[in-house]
Inverse folding.
């Protein structure tokens, strides 16, 4: 049997994995830096909390995803008009606005949040299974997107948007697609979170969550699915296992971002690729 | 007869600088038009206006009689316009082959849903290899653009533009940076492509090369069109000679080597 602690670990790791996979699609595949991923996570969680009483679980997951990606579409459309380097600032603003607005809404429980979110009814093992199945589905989805022509187009837009346009690629549509899919995944993660904790407060969807997820993407290697998965698991579990690391979590994340950017811009995936290239016989001159 | 491409009274201002001061010309199907003029004349800006990277302050761009002035660059690319950049812009994160493969898959990347459901790149890779061979850089297919010499990157630009099967190819100094053997070969390739039906506008500083392959020239100077006509007539035009050589040199034959040297 697995105990409550293990269930918590699986749930927390899974939720972070879903968030990181979604952000990897937006930031990694399509090159759109978002510092507001927690807003879409929160949108999904609140949407799920509101409808969980009246709908079956699959429908709740869907509704949560749809609400989140509706907001994602809105932010995406607005961000098409800002220059690339301002997108990060815009999305960060969206994150703050989200928390600020939710705090003042009575029907969302304001500061006190929403409590008594219905049980998922799957039992402990069932819930663990749901978490793992969703992570596997999302990893498969992003893997498929990466090797599809959509992923090819994302790579072109991330590399040089203007040149991609001269080759007939509608860069705006591609960026919106990345936003919509990535924020849908964040919304589903939000629903899982709501079912898991059964009460949500605005503070759970703040800036530090966005930065933590971004750290996982950067450390794993922007655009690399396995790299991001490894980084998300490690960076979620380390603070769980070490009290010291937990106390200095943000300091660690910040330092990791700086060190990765400075010494290994390709993250874990980049380091492994470099080592492989060096080890492979005949690979060197 | 409606022109394949028409530019009507195009005015482009960047801040206080007038880059194009009301330029008009039209292009029939199958033409190979040389666009020449001294540095800073507005040649690149004109091509950028045609492809939609630059939006004109005034004036219109028509493709097949249809006003495309408000259309995005990607929509114009889908209507059959392709551009090669003077300052090369390969996708640096992709191999040379992938640069061209991506362009060759324009039918798949045009529709998001089709892009999402298509995975196979076999046909596009084969097409890309053909095009790389056509411009003579097949050996570089698997290399990263970063290791290519400038001459090869120039040819990559041409191969990638051809990959979207354009009706009109806008070539911004494709021969610059190539040695004379490479330049002669690529010029011949371009002439062949033109003979096969692709309409082209070629910006080129080497007047001897232009005179060799372009039957018609448009000359820009300081954002204005100062000549438009058959190559022989334009190169004999006093205003053109003055723009290239300065007033003192009028009366000299501009088609010999010194003229191309002065222009470069």
């Amino acid at each position: 049997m697995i105990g409550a602690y293990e269930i918590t670990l699986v749930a927390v790791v899974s939720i972070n994995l879903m968030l990181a996979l979604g952000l990897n699609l937006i930031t990694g595949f399509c090159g759109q830096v978002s510092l507001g991923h927690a807003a879409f996570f929160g949108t999904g969680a609140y949407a799920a909390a509101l409808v969980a009483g009246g709908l079956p679980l699959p429908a709740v997951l869907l509704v949560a995803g749809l609400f989140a990606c509706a907001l994602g579409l809105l932010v995406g459309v607005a961000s098409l008009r800002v220059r690339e380097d301002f997108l990060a600032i815009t999305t960060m603003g969206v994150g703050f606005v989200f928390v600020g607005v939710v705090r003042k809404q009575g029907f969302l429980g304001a500061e006190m949040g929403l409590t008594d979110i219905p049980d998922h009814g799957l039992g402990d093992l069932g819930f663990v299974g749901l978490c793992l199945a969703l992570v596997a589905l999302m990893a498969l989805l992003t893997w498929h997107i990466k090797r599809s022509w959509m992923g090819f187009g994302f790579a072109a837009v991330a590399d040089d948007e203007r040149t991609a346009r001269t080759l007939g690629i509608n860069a705006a549509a591609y960026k919106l697609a990345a936003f919509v899919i990535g924020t849908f995944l964040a919304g589903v993660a939000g629903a899982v979170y709501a079912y898991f904790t059964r009460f949500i407060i605005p503070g759970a969807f703040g800036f530090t969550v966005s930065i933590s997820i971004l750290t996982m993407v950067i450390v794993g290697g922007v655009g690399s699915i396995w790299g991001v998965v490894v980084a998300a698991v490690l960076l979620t579990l380390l603070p769980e296992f070490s009290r010291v690391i937990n106390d200095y979590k943000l300091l660690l994340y910040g330092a990791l971002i700086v060190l990765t950017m400075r010494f290994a811009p390709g993250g874990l995936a980049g380091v492994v690729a470099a080592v492989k290239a060096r080890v492979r016989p005949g690979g060197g001159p | 007869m409606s022109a394949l491409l028409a530019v009507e009274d195009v005015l482009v201002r960047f801040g206080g600088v007038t880059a194009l001061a009301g330029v008009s010309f039209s292009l029939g199907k199958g033409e190979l038009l040389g666009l020449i003029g001294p540095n800073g004349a507005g040649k690149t800006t004109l091509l950028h206006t045609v492809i939609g990277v630059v939006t004109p302050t005034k004036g219109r761009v028509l493709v097949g009689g249809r006003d495309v002035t408000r259309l995005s660059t990607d929509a114009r690319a889908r209507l059959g316009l392709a551009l090669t950049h003077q300052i090369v812009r390969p996708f640096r994160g992709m191999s040379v082959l992938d640069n061209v493969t991506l362009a060759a898959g324009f039918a798949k990347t045009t529709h998001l849903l089709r892009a999402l459901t298509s995975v196979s790149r076999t046909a596009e890779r084969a097409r890309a290899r053909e095009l790389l061979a056509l411009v003579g850089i097949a050996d570089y297919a698997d290399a990263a653009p970063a290791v290519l010499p400038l001459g090869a990157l120039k040819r990559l630009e041409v191969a990638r533009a051809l990959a979207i099967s354009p009706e009109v190819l806008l070539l911004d100094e494709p021969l610059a940076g190539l040695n004379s053997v490479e330049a002669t070969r690529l010029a011949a390739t371009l002439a062949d492509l033109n003979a096969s039906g692709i309409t082209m506008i070629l910006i080129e500083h080497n007047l001897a090369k232009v005179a060799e392959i372009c039957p018609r020239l448009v000359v820009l100077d300081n954002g204005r069109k100062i000549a438009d006509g058959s190559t022989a007539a334009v190169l004999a035009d006093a205003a053109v000679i003055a723009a290239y050589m300065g007033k003192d040199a009028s009366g000299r034959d501009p088609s010999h080597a010194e003229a191309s040297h002065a222009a470069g």
Notes: Chain A has a mean pLDDT of 89. Residues 171-197 of chain A form the longest helix (27 residues). Chain A has 13 helices and no strands.
